[in-house]
Amino acid sequence: MKKIIIVSFILIFGFSLYAQSDANSLLRELRNKFNSINDLTVDYSQKAGGKVVLSGKIIFKKENKYRIENKNQIIGSDGISAWNYNSSQKKYIITNYDGVSNSIYSINYLVYQLPDECILSARTEGKLKVLELTPKTTNLQFSKIELWINTDNLIQKIILKELNNNSNEILLSNYKLNQKVSDSLFSFNPPEGTKVIDLR
Questions:
Q1: Dihedrals φ, ψ of 13, to 5°?
Q2: Residue 132 belongs to a domain with what CATH number?
Q3: Structure confidence by residue, pLDDT tens digits, 116-156
Q4: Cα–Cα distance between 175 and 166 in angstroms, integer?
């Protein structure tokens, strides 16, 4: 009986080490890919409860510049200030840049920061590899994030599982890499008549 327990422990522990090694290798490949990218644009759609609730475009440029566009809203940052323009409310809010804001859409946060705060594991689903990130502490407001990675080492899908067991899914498609995106896209002048709220 003792031998069976020891063998079982070795098998489980060995598999755990293998899974961790596999996850670290997948993360390294993902980071190497994004190290080669200076800027990107990608279409996204976000699902909640199986229904599309948001869709639009994400534009990213190193180091911390981003722009997220959807039907009624444009969110962006030049790496110093961050802003949020809502066309339906005619409201423009500007704050200091925070690397964690809009983190589910942040390439830097998902690829370079968040994995260090999580326990990693990996699996394969068809042609996609899945990197699972489970928080080490209760400081993060989710139970798990899955990064579904395609054969080009680009994130094709993000699944965020909330603490209440709800999940959000973001699909990414139509990547365009290293297009020399203009810095002007990461600043914004709100149209006349917009209510401006400066929180810097």
A1: -65, -40
A2: 2.50.20.10
A3: 999 999 999 999 999 999 998 878 888 999 999 999 999 99
A4: 28
